[in-house]
Specification:
globular; 308 residues; 19% strand; alpha+beta
Length: 308
């Protein structure tokens, strides 16, 4: 994991609400800008502090790598920037009581690095900085003044499973120990299609939470993630559930899980009104699972489910 500081004085309301970072690729005269180059160095799972109007106003988690993209609609902000730049998806959570780093700059001074620091030694922001890398100690100091810890923030991160799936698929496509037909079936299984969905339908007849039984409307969702599964597990029908799309979304991100006896486990990371709106708050038990399914569910509860 790497740690970043983004200055969003002009673009805060656009980038935080839209869930992204965007920068030009170079200065207006075509020269290199390290703060723009940094956009190409972030990785999924990295942590980002959003600085606006002298305060840390949001904390973000990078959910994808940088891609070349046209400038979003910033209104009048950035009129002089090039049309094409770097786009990085980031999911932000706004801070209830935004701290002002200038108020505790003495604690941050030992963690400043020099040329590319986002703060001056007075605690004022450095002009011209967009995305700057900062140290773990720097991050920990700021989080301490927010009344939280790095471990606490990381525990709440939700990285889309497709990030790991993309890496696993690239590795799969480069393998020479299996043929094209098997590769195709394994890739289809990632999308909940092909032999995998057929195998799941032999064990599951409907979405256990919504009761929907039409397979066209259901997703064959891996219990143990596709990227973490062996070739056999990728296609094993016991490693899957038929889920309605919104339930699949929750399950893939570890926001809902099940005990072996079918007791529904809900993560407190999801607001109560979401469960109510989706009609899931009154469902306490969905029926027990087979012994083989229980083995996969144990993995899901241990490695994916977010109990706090």
């Amino acid at each position: 994991m790497r740690y970043w500081w983004v200055n969003q004085n002009q673009t805060y309301k656009h980038e935080v609400a839209g869930g992204f970072l965007w920068s030009p690729k170079a200065n207006s005269n075509g020269s290199r800008n390290q703060f723009y180059v940094n956009m190409t160095e972030v990785s999924p799972g990295d942590l980002v502090l959003s600085f606006c109007d002298t305060r840390i106003k949001a904390i973000g988690t990078v959910t994808g790598s940088a891609v070349s993209a046209d400038k979003p609609d910033f209104g009048r902000a950035g009129d002089y920037w090039d049309k094409e730049g770097w786009f990085v998806p980031v999911e932000f959570t706004e801070v209830d009581n935004p701290p002002r780093p200038k108020d505790f700059i003495g604690d941050l001074l030992p963690h400043l690095r020099g040329k590319y620091d986002p703060l001056q030694r007075t605690g004022d922001g450095n002009q011209g900085v967009y995305l700057a890398e900062v140290s773990e100690g720097f991050i920990e100091t700021i989080l301490a003044h927010m009344g939280t810890t790095l471990e606490g923030v990381i525990a709440k991160e939700i990285i889309p499973p497709e990030v790991e799936d993309d890496k696993a698929q690239s590795a799969l496509e480069g393998r020479t120990d299996i043929g094209d037909t098997q590769k195709d079936q394994l890739v289809r299984a990632r999308r909940g299609q092909g032999i995998f969905k057929a195998n799941v339908r032999l064990n599951e007849k409907h979405c256990r939470l919504t009761g929907i039984a039409d397979p066209v409307l259901l997703i064959a969702s891996h219990i143990k993630p596709w990227s973490k599964s062996s070739d056999f597990e990728k296609l094993d029908g016991c490693n899957g559930l038929l889920l309605s799309p919104h339930v699949d979304r929750l399950f893939d991100r570890g926001l809902i899980s099940f005990d072996d006896d079918g007791t529904v486990l809900r993560s407190p990371a999801v607001a109560p009104e979401v469960w109510t709106a989706w009609g899931l708050d009154e469902i306490k038990n969905v029926g027990g699972f087979s012994l083989k399914q229980c083995g996969y569910l144990a993995y899901h509860r241990k490695h994916l489910f977010k109990p706090a």
